[in-house]
């Protein structure tokens, strides 16, 4: 048992349990019905998934209230992960009009000859957030992998012209 456990990188106890189950039942598979019972039906699971697809910024507490089933937020997250949906922060983009692009190009051309000492005088701001409490009030989105730049999951930021 010890040699086999070392080869498969498992504990000796788990190898012994699998061997005993194999000799007793002729199988090594988990027994059906083991684990916690599901709190939601398939139709409720579909409703949870549909709600996250229709409104990507819906919160877990809103989904729980609409589902009508007493489930914890972790259960909702697990159901959505099973449906290949992940909670991510939205991609934020600046809507660059031709005027904005022209202004940016002029700004870059005016500073194209700057050296290191000139750039050392520039202060860049950082937008780091520090959260001391539980909720950071950030917007999260439910989306499938590869949907980062799709229009429903894209937020545009509006800035004053002098900042662009």
Automatic annotation (TrEMBL):
InterPro entries: RNaseH_sf (IPR036397), Transposase_Tc1-like (IPR002492). One of its GO terms (biological process) is DNA integration. Residues 45-110 form the Transposase Tc1-like domain. Residues 26-46 are annotated as: Disordered. GO terms for molecular function: DNA binding. Pfam families: HTH_Tnp_Tc3_2. Coiled coil: none annotated. It comes from the Eukaryota. This is Transposable element Tc1 transposase. It comes from Trichonephila clavipes (Golden silk orbweaver). The lineage of its organism: Eukaryota, Metazoa, Ecdysozoa, Arthropoda, Chelicerata.
């Amino acid at each position: 048992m010890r040699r086999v456990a070392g080869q498969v990188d498992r504990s000796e106890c788990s190898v012994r349990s699998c061997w005993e189950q194999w000799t007793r039942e002729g199988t090594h598979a988990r027994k059906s019905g083991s684990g916690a019972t599901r709190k939601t039906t398939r139709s409720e699971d579909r409703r949870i998934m549909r709600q996250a697809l229709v409104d990507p910024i819906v919160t877990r507490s809103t989904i729980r209230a609409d589902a009508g089933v007493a489930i914890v937020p972790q259960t909702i997250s697990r159901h959505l992960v099973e449906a290949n949906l992940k909670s991510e922060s939205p991609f934020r983009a600046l809507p660059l009009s031709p005027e904005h692009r022209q202004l940016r190009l002029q700004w870059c051309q005016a500073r194209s000859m700057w050296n290191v000492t000139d750039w050392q005088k520039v202060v860049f701001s950082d937008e780091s957030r520090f959260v001391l409490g539980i909720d950071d009030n950030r917007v999260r989105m439910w989306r499938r992998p590869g949907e980062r730049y799709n229009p429903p999951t894209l937020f545009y930021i509006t800035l004053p012209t002098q900042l662009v």
